[in-house]
Specification:
Length: 362
């Protein structure tokens, strides 16, 4: 079966890019041909964009006329896409997408990431609910997410008929299952994010360690994250190495910031860390996959619902700090991490997720 994958492959976000890489790698190892459908129904600025509407507008114009060059981080992301992903031809609308791909694929898989979050707009929803898919092409979702408990999910009711045409549906979160289940007459399966599907140690075995000494890896800044790394630096007596997410502009002055890290270098940083502090869902997933002690510090309530859901799924709610909490003992939370129990939870969830993918891609 030739499969087209629809997800957030075009953004400059480590988790978004690595999760689709993992899904494509897993399908390939199962003998399934796949290509990522190159549709980009929303725009995200690349690394280096300034804050502020006017400054950002001027920066975009300067880039367009060649006055601002690409950052090293942007170049590494684009090279990863070109070298590591099998991406199909570029299309510019839902209608063109399915006209272009109807002879190229036998099935579409939608997901992972927040593909069903209404905040990305109607065009994105038309794409990720497969509104214009012609008859005869199978439709699946894998680990699709509706964004947040705070999203306006009533907007998704207009896609009830489109969801009803899916051949099998799986989601990443319990709250997404609760949103989608009333709209369909079939079972909605909870599965893990694609980032957990493969053995990443094999993917980064040729990557030289970027840091020789022991370190805490800090991915994605937040007030609670800043507090956590300050505590852990004192508790563990080791330095803190940080990499920013798309919208991170500042870290504490005593943190070593690495600004130009590529996707597999980022995975290597997680794999070699003594501990991880992150506000990111995928930062959490990679930490669990590598068995790394982690403290998760979501920056706002919207992100918290995804991370809280994952904490319950893997029975690690103790390491998730609500953004409403400002007093906590990060070292105690880290010491409470039980890698053997986490490994068992990951394995149980992986078995179900592998089974779902194997059942649809045959």
């Amino acid at each position: 079966m030739s499969i087209g994958i629809l997800t957030f492959h075009h953004v400059y976000n480590y988790g978004a890019l690595l999760q689709v890489y993992a899904l494509q790698r897993y399908l390939a190892r199962q003998g399934r041909m796949s290509e990522i459908v190159d549709v980009r129904p929303f725009y995200r600025d690349p690394p280096g964009a300034p804050r502020g509407r006017i400054r950002k507008y001027r920066w975009r114009i300067a880039r367009k006329i060649g006055l601002v060059s690409r950052s090293q981080k942007e170049i590494k992301f684009d090279s990863f896409r070109e070298e590591r992903l099998n991406i199909g031809p570029r299309v510019h609308s839902p209608q063109e997408l399915f006209t272009q791909y109807r002879s190229r694929v036998e099935a579409f898989i939608v997901g992972s990431d927040q593909v069903w979050d209404p905040r990305f707009g109607a065009t994105a929803q038309d794409v990720y609910f497969l509104r214009h898919v012609p008859e005869g092409i199978k439709r699946f979702s894998y680990a699709a997410c509706a964004g947040s408990k705070l999203s306006n999910h009533s907007l998704l009711r207009k896609y009830k008929n489109d969801l009803g045409r899916f051949d099998a549906i799986s989601v990443r979160d319990l709250f997404t299952k609760e949103v989608v289940s009333p709209l369909v007459n079939q079972e909605v399966t909870e599965v893990v994010d694609p980032s957990l599907l493969i053995d990443w140690a094999q993917e980064v075995e040729e990557i030289e360690p970027l840091i020789e000494d022991d370190y805490v890896f800090y991915y994605g800044s937040s007030p609670n994250g800043d507090s956590a790394v300050k505590q852990l630096r004192k508790h563990l007596g080791i330095k803190v190495v940080a990499v920013g997410m798309e919208n991170d502009y500042q870290f504490p002055c005593d943190v070593e910031v690495l600004p130009d890290i590529g996707p597999l270098e980022w995975v290597s940083l997680v794999s070699n860390a003594s501990a991880v502090v992150t506000k990111s869902f995928h930062g959490m997933m990679f930490s669990l996959r590598f068995g790394k002690p982690v403290v998760v510090t979501p920056g706002d309530k919207r992100a918290f619902s995804r991370i809280e859901d994952a904490g319950k799924r893997f029975k690690v709610t103790n390491i998730v700090i609500s953004p409403e909490i400002d007093l906590f003992d990060a070292s105690r939370l880290l010491d409470s991490y039980e890698p053997a129990k986490v490994e068992q939870q990951v394995k149980e969830n992986l078995d179900r997720s592998w089974g779902f993918l194997d059942s649809i891609a045959c």
